[in-house]
Amino acid sequence: MADKFWPVLVIALLLAIAVGFMLLGWRNRRRRQSALDVVAVPPAEIGEELGSERVLYSATTLAEQPLERIVVGGLGFRARGLMRIARGGVVLDLAGTAPAFIPLADIRGVGLASWTIDKGVDEDGLVFVRWELAGTLVDSYFRADDPDRLLAVLTELSPSAAAAARTAHPDTPQEEAPA
Asked: Has residue 170 been placed in a domain?
């Protein structure tokens, strides 16, 4: 019995130290992103509803930096929820958080992606919304039953988002057109 005690104790201590460092890293990330902790709440009137979709919210990352997760404003954890798209913007009702609102004026683009931090899916299986949060461009990623339909509704919402729409992840090399 004593010959197993010390290895188990060492492993338990190493695990405790690892968890402590993870918590410290998460706290430091929250502190660095404190200026972004201003996710809007939905206004009473958001205009005509164009559609809604049950989604799995995957993550919000800094735009063009898909490994830099945003952890403030209820955006740090994956959650099931309802995305409502209206003329005034997008309302995110995510489990475990207060509803969040992305105003139409803050939406910069929409598109399809195949991966984001800690999530890889089939080709073009994620819908992303690029938007401005406290002056910083971010990408929010969602998994929907019908990503093409969700993308179509989001594109209908904003012609400027349609013009900026991408069908590939920013880090995915694009083929050059022949000269």
From this structure: no
CA of 135: how far to CAs of 77, 87, 100, 105, 117, in Å? 22, 22, 17, 12, 22
Query: Do residues 154 and 84 touch, judged by C-beta distance below 8 A?
Result: no
93 and 55, same domain (yes or no): yes
Contacts of 11 (CB under 8 A, 6+ apart): none
At 170, list the tokens: 């920013």
Q: Is residue 42 part of a domain?
A: no
How high is the pLDDT of residue 168?
40
pLDDT of residue 41: 83
With bands split at pLDDT 50, 70 and 90, how would you rate the model's confidence at 125? confident
The conformation of residue 45, written as its DSSP 8-state character, comes to -
Closest to 83 measured CA to CA, from 132, 42, 137, 118? 42
In whole angstroms, what is the distance from residue 91 CA to residue 55 CA? 12
Same domain, 14 and 83: no
CA pair distance 100, 98, nearest whole angstrom = 6
Contact assessment for residue 166 and residue 114, using Cβ atoms and an 8 Å cutoff: no
Residues paired with 136 in a beta bridge? 133
Structure token digits, residue 38: 């201003």
What distance in Å separates the CA atoms of residue 36 and residue 71, rounded to the nearest whole number?
9
Look at residue 169 in the predicted model and tell me its pLDDT: 45
Contact at 8 Å (CB) between 130 and 138? yes
